[in-house]
């Protein structure tokens, strides 16, 4: 009985021992298993840490620092450009003939004006007028046509409409018929009727004597305003028409092309009191001798002072044929004989500085 009981106890203990062994085996397996599993996990962690170490990328971060000088070069470039800006006035001075100084330019320009004053002692506006109103209307009509054509047209216009009030109330079609010979007659009709209305309504039918008031009139710009101020009111002004622009550039008085800038540049060379007569001298010379296409250089009284001498005909006999004289019966508008401009040998003196 004891043996049986012992056998039973042994078997029971064996059964108990078996699960215990299994538990220990499982524990040992569990201990071994995690170790085996942790190893790849650690490898993964180290593998994950390696790319993380690349994030600082000191080499890449230093690359933008190497490109930093590029913007510095761009900053230096404008400084070089601004340093070269003061060289502009030097070009203006070099544009004068033979490197002419400012003082020499002033002297030459004034001498040219004195010479022209002797050739055209009676230079005056070539538009016929009896009062400021007629002068402002005639000057507006002179655009894109000759003064002679305007003088042939205005007598009929002023006979029918003698005052601003009369012209302001005129029938546009009737005015157009009168102004047709001057060209652009529709636009000119609109301008002269418009300025007449402005004179009647704003200035009591009188032409104002101020530049700021004149330029407000329809069809009246600075050129027309200075013609009126200088010749109707005795107030100095420079008339920059096509002849004036051509000649002052040909004489190297200025390189400007804008009329307002030409007016300022030339005005700085002369006393203000000379401006009106200067305008007449230059315009008369441009119409009679210093033509646009073929100037009569061989018969020019200011040839020794002109840097453009030689652009036109230099032979005296051929140059004489290019001169334009006014019709007889207009005293004061005739030129001196061409021989008066020539030296003893029958030729004009060469320009200053010529060989």
Automatic annotation (TrEMBL):
Q: How is the cofactor bound?
A: Binds 1 [4Fe-4S] cluster.
Q: Where is this region: Disordered?
A: 1-102, 326-355
The GO molecular function terms of this record are: class I DNA-(apurinic or apyrimidinic site) endonuclease activity
Keyword DNA-binding found: yes
The answer to whether keyword Glycoprotein applies is no
Keyword terms, alphabetized: 4Fe-4S, DNA damage, DNA repair, DNA-binding, Endonuclease, Glycosidase, Hydrolase, Iron, Iron-sulfur, Lyase, Metal-binding, Nuclease
One Pfam match, by short name? EndIII_4Fe-2S
The UniProt record lists the HhH-GPD domain at: 141-288
Which residues are noted in the entry as [4Fe-4S] cluster-binding? 290, 297, 300, 306
Query: Mind telling me which PANTHER family this protein's record contains?
Result: A/G-SPECIFIC ADENINE GLYCOSYLASE/ENDONUCLEASE III, ENDONUCLEASE III
What family does this belong to?
Belongs to the Nth/MutY family.
Please report the name of this protein according to its UniProt entry: Endonuclease III
């Amino acid at each position: 009985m004891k043996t049986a009981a012992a056998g039973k106890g042994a078997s029971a203990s064996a059964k108990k021992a078996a699960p215990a062994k299994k538990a220990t085996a499982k524990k040992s397996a569990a201990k071994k298993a995690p170790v085996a599993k942790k190893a790849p996990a650690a490898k993964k962690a180290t593998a994950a840490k390696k790319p993380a170490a690349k994030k600082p990328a000191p080499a890449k971060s230093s690359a933008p620092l190497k490109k930093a000088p590029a913007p510095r070069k761009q900053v230096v470039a404008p400084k070089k450009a601004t340093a070269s800006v003061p060289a502009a006035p030097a070009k203006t001075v070099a544009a004068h003939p033979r490197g002419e100084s400012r003082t020499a330019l002033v002297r030459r320009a004034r001498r040219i004006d004195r010479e022209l004053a002797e050739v055209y002692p009676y230079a005056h506006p070539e538009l016929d007028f009896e009062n400021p109103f007629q002068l402002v209307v005639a000057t507006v009509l002179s655009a894109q046509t000759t003064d002679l054509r305007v003088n042939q047209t205005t007598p009929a216009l002023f006979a029918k409409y003698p005052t601003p009030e009369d012209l302001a109330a005129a029938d546009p079609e009737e005015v157009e018929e009168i102004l047709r010979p001057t060209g652009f007659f529709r636009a000119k009709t609109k301008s002269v009727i418009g300025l007449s209305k402005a004179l009647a309504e704003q200035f009591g039918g009188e032409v104002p004597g101020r530049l700021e008031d004149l330029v407000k009139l329809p069809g009246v710009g600075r050129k027309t305003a200075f013609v009126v101020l200088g010749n109707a009111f005795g107030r100095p002004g420079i008339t920059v028409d096509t002849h004036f622009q051509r000649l002052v550039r040909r004489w190297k008085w200025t390189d400007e092309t804008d009329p307002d800038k030409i007016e300022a540049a030339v005005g700085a060379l002369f006393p203000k009191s000379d401006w009106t007569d200067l305008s007449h001298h230059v315009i008369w010379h441009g119409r009679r001798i210093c033509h646009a296409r073929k100037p009569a250089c061989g018969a020019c009284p200011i040839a020794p002072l002109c840097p453009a001498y030689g652009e036109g005909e230099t032979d005296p006999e051929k140059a004489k044929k290019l001169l334009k004289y006014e019709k007889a019966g207009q005293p004061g508008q005739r030129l001196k004989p061409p021989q008066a401009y020539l030296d003893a040998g029958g030729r004009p003196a060469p320009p200053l500085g010529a060989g």
